[in-house]
Amino acid sequence: MTLCATLGNTAATDVAGIVQLAERRYGAAARRDVLEWLELIEVARDQEEYKKLQLVNDFFNRRIRFDDDLRLWRQPDYWATPLETMGIGAGDCEDFSIAKYMTLKALGMPVSRMRLIYVRARIGGPPGGVVQAHMVLGYYAAPTAEPLVLDNLVGEIRPASRRPDLYPIFSFNGEGLWVGGAANSSADPTTRLSRWRDLLARMRDDGLD
């Protein structure tokens, strides 16, 4: 049974299995963090959508330490599942964004309102700032609405117009892929993005799909 079904049906045995898996793989601290994550989902379930965004954004920004994939996973680019991210208590920008996306999905947020957005981020501001690849989570109240940006670099949720430091490259969710702002929702992200496909397979193994 998947996480969404587990929480929707309050199947205690399945939730216990997720907690036990976290403890078996990563230890007592991971058990505590996953229990608090499940508590967050329970508390946020009946909140209005913007409050869900705030609760989930704050939860991961405050609890997860930023680090790069080479140190964490001995790979140049690894997309961790939420269980992996909470298990080691650290992640990079993709891991923050994925954990927020999957948690909001578990809370019933429509996938159509969320996109994982690859951007070029200017760090430090002009002059002398550096530009680097980065990922954020975008929330769209309507298909043509300006997105709100959930980011680990800036804790406050802001509309995209208030994030001039970000330049979008492409975005995707479980339903489609958008390149350069142009809708290409017929493109299957599991076909185009091998890391996304691998992530979903590992999430199914964790019971978190």
Quick recap of the structure?
With 209 residues, the protein is of the alpha+beta class. The protein is built from nine helices and nine strands.
Structure description:
The protein is an alpha+beta fold and 209 residues long. The chain has a single domain (3-206), classed as C8orf32 fold (Roll). 46% of the residues lie in helices and 20% in strands. The chain has nine helices and nine strands. The protein has helices spanning 3-9, 12-26, 28-44, 49-63, 69-73, 82-88, 93-106, 189-192, 194-206, and strands at residues 65-66, 90-91, 114-123, 130-139, 148-150, 158-159, 166-172, 177-179, 182-184. Strand 7 (166-172) and strand 8 form a beta hairpin. Helix 2 (12-26) packs across helix 6 and helix 3 packs across helix 6. The termini are close together. Residues 4-13 have low confidence and may be disordered.
